[in-house]
Specification:
Blueprint: E1 11-14, H1 19-28, E2 31-34, E3 40-43, E4 45-50, E5 53-58, H2 59-65, H3 74-89, E6 94-95, E7 112-113, E8 123-125
Parallel strand pairs: 3-8
Antiparallel strand pairs: 1-5, 1-6, 2-3, 2-7, 4-5
């Protein structure tokens, strides 16, 4: 699914406490796909602040928003949706439009969550850097 997207296509979220933005940002650095052989974790999602609204976005969505080519799949959407659900369950945010039954949601075993206390034992790798050109 290689398409152009707009902010209306993104998963909008809200939160009560402004401190949650930084908590969410840090937490997302510890959620993603892990390598089989090494302790590498590839961050799947970011929190994006755009025009007064907040979104949980997959890094491939960010590439598309920047006008770059990206193969953003149903599996990627499912992972993003599952990660947003987890953040909501943990009380960090509220998803604005509920995820529908027909929307993809990944299984928890498709996502690695590195506990904060184990963060130092992992290489946390970010494939997209918000605000950085090139």
């Amino acid at each position: 699914m290689n398409t152009k997207i707009t902010p209306e296509d993104l998963l909008e979220v809200t939160f009560d406490d402004e401190e949650n933005f930084l908590k969410i940002k840090e937490t997302l650095t510890r959620i993603g796909i892990s390598s089989k052989k090494e302790n590498n974790l590839y961050q799947s999602c970011h929190i994006l602040h755009k025009k007064g609204k907040y979104y949980i976005v997959h890094f491939k969505e960010m590439f598309l928003l920047d006008g770059l080519d990206s193969e953003f799949t149903q599996n990627d959407i499912g992972r993003r949706n599952k990660i947003a659900q987890l953040l909501e369950e943990w009380g960090l945010l509220k998803i604005v439009k509920p995820i529908k039954e027909c929307d993809p949601i990944a299984s928890i075993n498709q996502i690695k969550i590195v506990p904060h206390k184990e963060k130092k034992d992992w290489n946390l790798i970010c494939k997209y850097h918000i605000g950085r050109k090139g």
